[in-house]
Amino acid sequence: MDQELILELPNDIRSIEHAVEYVTRHCSSCCDYARRLNLNFRVGLTEALSNAMLYGNDSDPEKRVRVEVTIKHEEVSVIVTDQGMGFDPASVPDPTLPGNISKTGGRGIFLMKALMDEVKFNERGNSVTLVLRFEGEASA
Amino acid sequence: MSFQVSKSGDVTVIDVEGQLIVGNRQELKQKVLDELEKGERRFVVNFSETGYIDSSGLGVLVSLSKKIREQDGELRLASLNEDLRTLFELTKLDTLFTIADSREEALEGF
């Protein structure tokens, strides 16, 4: 049976770890794919939340981040929406290009795309949908 | 999550227990910079008890490595499990760091 969760988070990066653990625990109760949840899902969701808080909401403590989670047996999808003006994800350079590897930032969206099966931004750029599929994955 | 700082000879070892992510990266940075300020130059960050690292955690390691190198020191990484190694490979940061299989191996080479 599908499970849905909706969280409204304060714009505080200290809330990210607890939120990620909370959502991952709920996923674990439905799915049996520990490895993809442990790494891909946790890191992907952490990146989406930190982008929303630091860049989307510009670290404004008055703003909030909405997290909508749909958990199915074969996949989990998460929509992370901030209250910012949005941005163009295509404008972020590839952090693995030789000139960018030693930069201290710019890996968040790259990791999201590398670790999740689907990453979609809305037109405004203030909401991202992450999908992680479990079909065909061996349980660990 | 916590960072335990210990000494092995003239090498400073920092054990990362839990996650290294956006919410705690500044704590690790400050601990290493404090040791650098005291004159320490050789560092091993040990990940044997680490769950996951996000892009902010990776970024702080890059930043610390640069600062330590500027002081003629070196930062090495140790005990990355398969998942964590994947993150370094995806981002090509495995080309930037000396990565040892274990804390002991990292210390031996210094």
CATH topology of chain A: Heat Shock Protein 90
Oligomer category: heterodimer
* Helix and strand element order of chain A: EHHEEHEE
Gap from first CA to last CA of chain A: 22 Å
Kindly state the percentage of residues in helix of chain A.
25-40%
Helical/strand content category of chain A: alpha+beta
Short description:
The complex is a heterodimer of chains A (140) and B (110). Chain A has helices spanning 16-30, 34-56, 108-115; strands spanning 3-10, 64-71, 75-81, 118-121, 127-133. Chain A has 140 residues and is of the alpha+beta class.
Describe the structure in your own words.
The complex is a heterodimer of chains A (about 140) and B (about 110). Chain A is α+β, with helices and mostly antiparallel strands and about 140 residues long. Chain A has one domain (about 5-135): Heat Shock Protein 90 (2-Layer Sandwich). Chain A is built from 3 helices and 5 strands, in the order βααββαββ. Chain A starts with a strand and ends in a 7-residue tail after the last strand. By secondary structure, chain B is α/β, with parallel strands linked by helices. Chain B has one domain (about 1-110): 2-Layer Sandwich (Transcription Regulator spoIIAA). Chain B has 4 helices and 6 strands, in the order ββαββαβαβα. Chain B has helices at about 25-35, 55-70, 80-90, 105-110; strands spanning about 1-10, 10-20, 40-45, 50-55, 75-80, 100. In chain B, helix 1 packs parallel to helix 2 (about 55-70). The radius of gyration of chain B is 12 Å and the shape is globular. The mean pLDDT of chain B is about 95. Classes of the chains: A alpha+beta (about 140), B alpha/beta (about 110). Chains A and B meet through helix 2 and helix 3 of A and strand 4, helix 2 and helix 3 of B.
